[in-house]
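lol ok so funny story. i was supposed to be doing the assay writeup but got distracted and ended up predicting the structure for this chain instead. priorities right. anyway since i did it might as well share w the group, maybe its usefull for someone
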Amino acid sequence: MPIVSVLLPFYDAFATLKGAVASIREQTFQDWELILVDDGSTDGSRDLARYLTLRDSRIHLIEMSHKGIVDALNTGLKAVSGDFVARMDADDLCFPERLARQFAFLKEHPDIGLVSCLVQHGGDSDAQQGYAEYIRWINELVEPDAISLQRFVESPFAHPSVMFRRELIEKHGSYMNGDFPEDYDLWLRWMQGGVRMAKVQEVLLQWMDLPGRLSRTDVRYRLKAFYQLKFKYLAEWLARSNPFHPMVRVWGAGRVTRQRVAWLEELGVVVEGYYDVDPRKVGEPRPGLSVRSHKEMPAPGKELILVMVGARGAREKIRAFMQERYWVEGRDYLFAA
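and the output, tada:
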């Protein structure tokens, strides 16, 4: 029985599948099985996958009609036999030490349920600056506490970069279908269940940024879907952890922020008012909207602030401002944008 099961679902991936599989076969850690799940491909991918199974007995193919990524993932999870499951996508490439490093990390850290790694942007970082900036951000999140604190900003992992203990599926559930990103939901649900997550501080995956990637084309990955999903878990976190529940204040009083806050208010969170650095927004610009200068914040322990400013570089400045005033992240304030 293999120790690590690599789960790789694919759909119409003829151009990249062979390279992705080759990067698994070239791993220095060799005690693995590769579960390929064909989600009803029509471009010759299935025939290629059948050929690859003939070349290596550790490669297994599951063939299914086209049902989507979540059904493909869950079908594959039912077939894995290893105690550890590594995710992989058909258009990405593993570096040779990936499985060895992640397996060793989980063996050495029994308190960690899921481990990722740093990733390399497989695309044009100048033309795709937003995506390159996102990769820079996730590569800064390595330790469990940092990952947990920042989980309501964005998804802290590249999905194909993770390895987790198979027992987590039984304890906390597998991927869920819905109008939301299935991987982000899994991380948030598992962390809410107490699962600690970390990263090997090495670049072990090339994460390709291709035009047809699901996160660019599927409605489940649009910005509104991300916010509504994370607000669901954020509201539950606030109910458990906010001593002033259901009351919060929000840093960031722009129109877009207020629109997003409305989704959070639908979940029972009450926004008492806003803080902002722009003096033009301070005051009562319209009935029912109260905006204070960020300099008017009270001493810590008087309220909980959700920081909803997502501009590049803003989080670092806000965190420095809060630390100077002895506000504690995760206790007195939390980033959520």
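The first strand starts at residue 4 and ends at 10. The chain has two domains: 4-220, 223-335.
back to the writeup now i swear
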